[in-house]
Amino acid sequence: MRNFFFWFIRLEKALLIFFLLCVSLAASDLNASQCYQKQFSYGIVCVCNSTHCDFTPQPKKLPNGKYILYTSSNEGSRFTKSNGSFVPFIDSQWTSNEINVDENTSYQTIEGFGAAFTDSAGLNIKSLSNKTQENLLRSYFGDDGIKYNIGRVPIGGSDFSTRAYTYADEKGSSDLANFSLQTEDLEFKIPFIRIAQSKTSEELKLIASSWSAPIWMKTNNAISGIGFLKTKYMELWAKYHLKFLDAYKNFNITFWALTTGNEPLNGIIPLNRFNSMGWTPQSHRDWIGQYMGPILKSSEYNKTLLFAIDDQRIVLPWWMKMLMSDKEAAKYIDGVAVHWYLDFIVPVNVLSEVHDSFSNILILNTEASQGDRPWDFVKVQLGSWNRAEKYADNIIDDLNHWVQGWLEWNLALDTTGGPNWASNYVDAPIIVNKNKDEFYKQPMYYTIGHFSKFITRGSVRIKLSLSSAIKSVGFKRPDGAIVIVLYNRRSKNINVLIKDSKRGNIGLSLQKQSINTLIYW
Ligand SMILES: *[C@@H]1O[C@H](CO)[C@@H](O)[C@H](O)[C@H]1NC(C)=O
Ligand SMILES: *[C@@H]1O[C@H](CO)[C@@H](O)[C@H](O)[C@H]1NC(C)=O
Ligand SMILES: *[C@@H]1O[C@H](CO)[C@@H](O)[C@H](O)[C@H]1NC(C)=O
Ligand SMILES: *[C@@H]1O[C@H](CO)[C@@H](O)[C@H](O)[C@H]1NC(C)=O
Ligand SMILES: *[C@@H]1O[C@H](CO)[C@@H](O)[C@H](O)[C@H]1NC(C)=O
Ligand SMILES: *[C@@H]1O[C@H](CO)[C@@H](O)[C@H](O)[C@H]1NC(C)=O
Ligand SMILES: *[C@@H]1O[C@H](CO)[C@@H](O)[C@H](O)[C@H]1NC(C)=O
């Protein structure tokens, strides 16, 4: 009898909550919790300073039959939380957009999400007071922030530095005699990597990439433009990477992975004006197979993974096939790193093709930023929801095509999108305003957070039947939670029905232009 009553009340409550939710979600809370909103011409940012910043604790494990939904939207929701219960049946108004959850069919395992500890990011963060810096780093790496757990570290300078440099600009009496870390490592990278490590509850996995060899190792004797590694320096350039690992190890910083060099295609583009070094597929293959691979794997860093390519999708999958057809190179390639800049012209299927050909290869998106195009006259568009949506779209596509992690570019830039010695300014999810000792969390920050905060390392993608109106991707986390990210790009609210054969149905009214994360156990 008690049981019957219990179930009866539960069901009644569930239905009540369900119907309330349909109403309440539509007119959702615009005062997103603790976000101090500021309207700029492109949209809304959340302002943080030394005494105030918005944080969102991780959801506690819910009882069966309950779910939580986090929503961020063009209208101003930022991780706005609502909850509800599964229901056994569903009214027909929900059934036109149905998403079936099939946790029996699983795909790739997630490594994580993150961004890069560039010199410029460190310089910008350092321009803030200690308490504001703490809020910024917690916003990215804390459990109540967006839980980044991967960091990319440039080996030497990139364009996001105030000067072009390497660790051996001057050729010493013996080749790498002059190798040394620079002020930038000590001031702008290492301190922030360490603080980030202290804030993450998961291991912060670090992946390092070089932008260019010292100019004396290069065919064009210049840091940018069309230039390649001189063949006689193949071995030395691999050893340079080991010297870097040694130098960081002295600071107790170890690397999970290396890439084979940032964007080798830039080294064959005549107009390129920032740090770059070209590889042809052949030279790339030979360097990996005969030098970098064997030197790395016979060193104490034998566990460090090697990611090839580190460039735009456009060279996939043919470049990977070329590398992997070489027995020597194939031995040493653990993954492929891709960048997002040409995704608008290259179909996402090339990622699946890489996976289908080489199922053991990790696929990581190691860089994305916006405002990079020549026609992007305003580099930093404070509050842009449009840019948030571009990321939502891209991350969902990537994750639905075997990508195991997704990294943005600079952790923080200034209001001009720099500094950048080559004037190659871009936008960032966090923009620092040092004059006011504050920083702005842009919609991009929350969009990435809808993935990074909830899809913990080790989560496995599961199958969703996709609805045409809503873009979605689903995961099962190591703690058993199901996490589904739902993106409504339309300018009207959309009802969706989530059907989980084990647990029941959820009817959601997704806010117009919103990104949502649904969690249940
Ligand atoms: C930080 O921002 C909050 C919210 O706007 C404000 O009340 C507070 O005065 C600011 N703190 C400082 C030190 O400016
Ligand atoms: C669900 O929402 C209600 C009403 O806002 C709130 O009182 C309750 O604490 C929430 N439950 C969870 C698990 O978040
Ligand atoms: C998943 O597998 C279980 C046990 O094998 C089965 O009972 C269930 O129907 C399956 N679910 C789906 C959605 O296929
Ligand atoms: C702020 O100061 C404290 C105490 O000196 C220190 O432990 C912490 O690392 C500093 N934080 C940053 C971001 O520098
Ligand atoms: C480079 O190394 C040579 C000796 O090998 C030394 O004389 C010179 O001072 C070094 N230069 C720098 C910038 O460290
Ligand atoms: C080095 O780092 C590891 C992991 O981050 C930490 O457990 C250890 O205590 C650190 N050791 C020193 C000497 O700082
Ligand atoms: C990898 O390096 C460690 C030392 O860092 C060494 O103990 C181990 O034997 C090496 N493993 C292989 C397979 O070479």
Topology:
Elements: H1 2-26, E1 37-40, E2 43-48, E3 66-73, E4 80-85, E5 98-109, E6 112-116, H2 119-126, H3 130-141, E7 150-155, H4 183-199, E8 205-210, H5 234-249, E9 257-259, H6 281-297, E10 305-312, H7 318-324, H8 327-332, E11 335-339, H9 349-357, E12 362-367, H10 385-399, E13 405-410, E14 413-414, E15 430-433, E16 438-441, H11 443-452, E17 460-464, E18 471-476, E19 482-488, E20 494-500, E21 504-510, E22 514-520
Parallel strand pairs: 5-20, 6-7, 6-13, 7-8, 8-9, 9-10, 10-11, 11-12, 12-13, 14-15
Antiparallel strand pairs: 1-2, 2-16, 3-4, 3-22, 5-17, 15-16, 17-18, 18-19, 19-22, 20-21
Main sheet: strands, sense, barrel: 9 strands, mixed
Number of helices: 11
Determine the CATH superfamily of the largest domain.
Answer: Glycosidases
Shape verdict: globular
Quickly give the CATH architecture of the largest domain.
Alpha-Beta Barrel
* Radius of gyration of CA atoms, rounded to a whole number: 24 Å
Distance between the termini: 28 Å
CATH fold annotation of the largest domain:
TIM Barrel
CATH class of the largest domain equals Alpha Beta
Q: Could you give the count of β-strands?
A: 22
Helix content: 25-40%
Strand content: 15-25%
